[in-house]
Amino acid sequence: MVDKRACIMVALAAIAVVGISSALKRLRVRTASSKAQDLASLWVGGIETMLDVPGAGTISLAPCETAAESRESFPDGLRAIPAGGAAFAVTAFDPPGVARTRDENARENGKLWAMLKTAGADAAWRAYGVDVTEGWREDGFVLAFADAAAGRRRVAAAARAFDQGAIYEYTLTQGAVARRTLGVGMAMDETTFMRRMPYDELLARRPDLVGLPWAGPSDGGVLP
User: Fold this and answer.
1) Is the four-CA dihedral 79, 83, 84, 85 of positive or negative sign?
2) What is the model's pTM?
3) Do the beta carbons of residue 139 and residue 103 sit within 8 Å?
4) What would the DSSP string read from start to end of 18-52?
5) pLDDT in tens, 116-157
6) Half-sphere exposure of 117 (CA within 13 A, CB side)
C-alpha cells in the first residue's frame, strides 16, 4: 500500500520547488527592471559636452528644471540644432553589461562612425557625456538632421547595431533646449530641459574625466 504521508510530503516538496522557482523568476525580473531604472537615471542626469559645435564652439549642457532656465542660459539660442529638426547624440562605448578599455571603446566608435557618416546628417560634431558623481565618461557623436524623424530612425538603428541602451535627442523650442533620452535597447523615454554649463566649472569638478582626449577616429566625427 502506498504511504499517504509520503505522497503528501512529495507533493508539498514539489509545490515548494515551484514556488521557489517562481520567486527566483520574479526576483530576476525585478533585478533587471531595477538595473534598467538605474541606467535610465544615470543617462537622464548626464552632462554632455559638445566639441566645436558650428557657431557655438565647445559647450557643456546640464539638466535643469524649467524652460525659462534653459532659455536664460542660451540668450542666442543654439543654431546648430536645425529649426524644426533635431540633433542626436550616440556612442559605441560600453553597452549595458559590458566593460571595455578606453582604447577598445575608441575602436568601436570608429566602426560606429563608418556607419553614421553615410546616414545623411546635415552636420555632425564630436561630444562626450559624463557623470561627475558616478565617475563615468562616454565619448561619441552628435548628428543634426533637418528631418527629425529620419534622423531618429537612422541614429537609433546605428545605436541598436552597437547594442546601446539609448540615444539623446536635442530639440530647440522657443529658445529652450530640451533633451529626450530615448531607449533603443530598453523601454525608456524621458525629456528634460538643458542649461548651458560653464566648461571651466565642469573641468574643475572632474579634471580626471573632462581632461581626457576624445576617444574616436582621428579623421572622423565631423560633418560637413
Assistant:
1) negative
2) 0.81
3) no
4) HHHHHHHHHHHHHHHHHHHHHHHHHHHT-EEEEEE
5) 999 999 999 999 999 999 899 999 999 999 999 999 999 999
6) 14
